[in-house]
Recover the amino acids of this structure.
């Protein structure tokens, strides 16, 4: 600003770099790939103790006694806590149903349930002390499946249920049940010229995040506690933690620490309450870190499922009806099972136009490990089954499986089975066309110029089990539909606080939300939004904590939509205040201040034609501008309990895959050669990040297709493979080329027209791989994952 108060000399504005639509690099990327990023497990505090959890060794048993005397006598032990030491009458927690005890009391309901806590001055001391706790169990019959859960006289996993679902389920061992009925499926079945029925089994998948559960609790002088934690939703954790501790929420101060992946597995509490209890009891900071073995017991998993489907069609390939029954195993506690049931039911038909549907989805209480949120959230299991059905119906009709899908594909305006009209682009047929149109990868890629086989390109890879004999290629296709955002009437909102000020003559924006950055790149996108809306280069992202309002969970592919929407709205308010201040200060120097549509670009206030009126530093002066907003998407509705009708979802996303596999049919080994994806992303705010999300989701779908499954003993309900030695996940050698074709068909209801992208590719990748293996082998293959014995006919031998 010059001495007269008029704005100083300015050049014409240019487009601000690093805004939406650009592949801006993420600020934590280099630190993560070089090993310098500070994860939650890296935290340290002077004088801290180490916490450890004693877990049940049986799946279902009455607890007759817990003897902690020997543990307390171990030198270096500062506290041993059981149920009796909990400070308030609130001793259970849960996302929707508060049925999960902080520490087991009376009985344990699953293998690995927390029973007692130890704090000691060394982690090994805490572990040895926990091993000295004596628990007297009287084992009870285990409930492991629908037959045992609903049999006459079945043992109840939870007696005396009073939750809001209890009065609406046919048996107390059913957590929630959701029918979806539209049209007359019975009459449609009479008209059908072809009817295909199938039964399918989906295995229990683990989120397998690489950063284990960890946190640091620090007691405060005012009687409160600070908790540094890796989580997906700070405020949801807070609402469950504070009542158990007997503290007001403002005395439980939570800060997000470095998160090493999540995928749904950090939506539920793990050691949050335990660390706080030990810190408050000892008056010392307490750190807890699970090892990999304990991590398998410390979080929920993807629901295993049994699915029965019936599809009817006319001879010319039009679907007449779909009937389905989906049974999800929720394990010992409810977690997010009710919402998973709603998703599985409402998305059970897939991205197809079908006038008559009769769907039933339910989740069981069993003594198996608790299951809850995982990427895809109920839609994954359904997609595996309905896409297998689509292939089988096409084969019965003698139709090409891709053209059969395209013939029945939904489009904008189609009614969902819930009666909700799809009111934004639904390019299902186009996605299928695109993946099919891609050139196929060359065959026999293992052959080299010298005649030797490159075993890395063969089924079995470096195990050197085959050199190409018995290898058959297969190609398969699948497409899926996933909802975006929280559904069924949930008040889905996010809070953003944005501050803009001049620092040493440079305009700087500070963005503060409670969004959990779990690897999805939200911090990158928030900075891009602020640069775009405020026309500046310098943006600071504050650490996520509970000093700002809730951002909701980093789940349901919602954060860019909802918290991004909140940041955008807050920045728009800041922009209006900046322009108003500029008009007051400089309006008399240029008529455009009063008459033109003004923009913020490249650190300046400019007209639509690019004429610069003032620098933002001059407009701001020494006084910052700050605002905080809550932003909500369009409201949704609960689904009717009887018919399942209602506008339950705010947005849908679509992805299609083509899988190319090579199978050694003699040894039962599978090599996925390529897994191409086409997906409508609405608007790619950061194309590189979007591509990464699509490739990551695709890889998790590949994992559950051919290798990933938590094995639970059907007699004892004990987990058999709680380690990465025995629970296999795809490595870089297992992951194929994943070419991505992005459509950008804007959803007019969403910020920038974007769609949530993270989950949809997890759906269709699994059935595409299964379809390709079926194509190569001619086998039916109605379960995931496919193992070698399923391909060689030696299963059970």
């Amino acid at each position: 600003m010059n001495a007269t108060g008029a704005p100083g000399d300015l050049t014409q504005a240019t487009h601000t770099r690093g805004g939406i639509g650009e592949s801006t690099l993420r600020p934590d990327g280099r630190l993560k790939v070089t090993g310098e990023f500070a994860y939650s497990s890296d935290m340290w505090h002077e004088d801290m103790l180490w916490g450890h959890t004693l877990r049940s060794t049986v799946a279902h048993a009455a607890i007759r006694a817990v003897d902690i005397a020997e543990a307390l006598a171990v030198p270096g032990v500062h506290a041993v806590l059981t149920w009796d030491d909990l400070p308030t009458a609130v001793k259970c927690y849960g996302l929707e149903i508060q049925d999960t005890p902080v520490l087991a009391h009376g009985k344990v309901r699953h293998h690995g349930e927390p029973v007692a806590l130890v704090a000691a001055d060394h982690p090994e001391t805490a572990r040895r002390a926990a091993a000295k706790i004596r628990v007297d169990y009287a084992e009870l019959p285990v409930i492991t499946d629908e037959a045992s859960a609903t049999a006459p006289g079945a043992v109840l996993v939870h007696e005396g249920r009073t939750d809001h679902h209890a009065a609406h389920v046919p048996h107390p061992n059913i957590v929630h049940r959701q029918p979806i009925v539209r049209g007359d499926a019975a009459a449609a079945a009479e008209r059908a010229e072809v009817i295909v029925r199938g039964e399918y089994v989906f295995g229990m998948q683990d989120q397998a995040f690489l950063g284990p559960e960890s946190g640091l609790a620090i007691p405060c002088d005012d009687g409160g506690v600070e908790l540094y934690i890796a989580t997906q939703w700070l405020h949801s954790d807070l609402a469950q933690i504070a009542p158990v501790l007997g503290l007001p929420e403002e005395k439980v101060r939570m800060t997000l620490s470095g998160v090493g992946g999540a995928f749904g597995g950090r939506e539920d509490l793990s050691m949050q309450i335990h660390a706080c209890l030990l810190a408050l009891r000892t008056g010392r900071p307490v750190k807890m870190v699970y090892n990999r073995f304990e991590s398998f017991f410390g979080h929920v998993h993807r629901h295993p499922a049994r699915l029965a489907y019936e599809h009817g069609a006319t001879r010319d390939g039009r679907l007449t009806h779909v009937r389905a029954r989906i049974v999800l195993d929720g394990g010992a506690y409810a977690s997010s099972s009710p919402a998973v049931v709603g998703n599985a039911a409402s998305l059970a038909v897939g991205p197809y136009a079908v006038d008559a549907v009769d769907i039933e989805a339910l989740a069981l209480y069993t003594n198996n490990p608790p299951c809850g949120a995982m990427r895809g959230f109920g839609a994954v299991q359904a997609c595996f089954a309905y896409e297998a059905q689509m292939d089988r119906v096409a084969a019965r009709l003698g139709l090409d499986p891709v053209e059969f899908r395209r013939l029945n594909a939904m489009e904008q305006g189609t009614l969902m089975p819930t009666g909700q009209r799809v009111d934004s682009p639904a390019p299902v047929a186009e996605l299928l066309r695109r993946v099919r149109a891609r050139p196929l990868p060359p065959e026999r890629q293992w052959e080299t110029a010298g005649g030797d086989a490159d075993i890395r390109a063969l089924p079995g890879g470096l195990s050197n089990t085959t050199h190409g004999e018995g290898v058959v290629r297969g190609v398969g296709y699948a497409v899926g539909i996933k909802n975006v955002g929280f559904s069924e009437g949930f008040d889905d909102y996010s809070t953003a606080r944005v501050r803009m000020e001049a620092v040493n003559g440079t305009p700087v924006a500070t963005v503060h939300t409670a969004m959990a950055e779990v690897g999805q790149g939200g911090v990158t996108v928030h900075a891009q939004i602020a640069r775009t809306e405020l026309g500046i280069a310098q943006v600071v992202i504050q650490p996520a904590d509970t000093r700002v309002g809730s951002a909701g969970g980093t789940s349901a592919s919602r954060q860019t939509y909802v918290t991004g929407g909140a940041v955008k709205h807050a920045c728009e308010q800041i922009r209006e205040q900046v322009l108003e201040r500029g008009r007051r200060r400089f309006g008399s120097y240029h008529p455009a201040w009063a008459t033109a549509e003004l923009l913020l670009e490249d650190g300046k206030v400019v007209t639509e034609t690019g004429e610069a009126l003032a620098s933002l530093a001059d407009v701001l002066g020494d006084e910052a501008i700050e605002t905080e907003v809550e932003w909500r998407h369009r409201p949704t509705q609960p689904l009717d309990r009887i018919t399942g009708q209602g506008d339950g979802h705010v947005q849908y996303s679509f992805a299609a895959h083509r899988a190319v596999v090579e199978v050694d049919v003699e040894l039962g080994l599978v090599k996925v050669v390529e897994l191409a994806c086409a997906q409508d992303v609405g608007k790619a705010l950061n194309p590189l990040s979007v591509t990464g999300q699509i490739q990551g989701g695709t890889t998790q779908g590949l994992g559950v297709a051919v290798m990933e499954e938590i094995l639970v003993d059907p007699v004892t309900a004990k987990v058999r493979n709680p380690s990465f030695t025995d629970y296999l996940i795809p490595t870089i050698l297992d992951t194929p080329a994943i070419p991505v074709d992005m459509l950008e068909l804007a959803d007019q209801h969403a910020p920038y027209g974007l769609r949530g992208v993270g989950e949809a590719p997890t759906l269709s990748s699994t059935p595409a791989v299964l379809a390709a293996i079926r194509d190569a082998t001619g086998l039916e293959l109605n379960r995931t994952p496919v193992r070698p014995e399923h391909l060689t006919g030696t299963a059970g031998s």
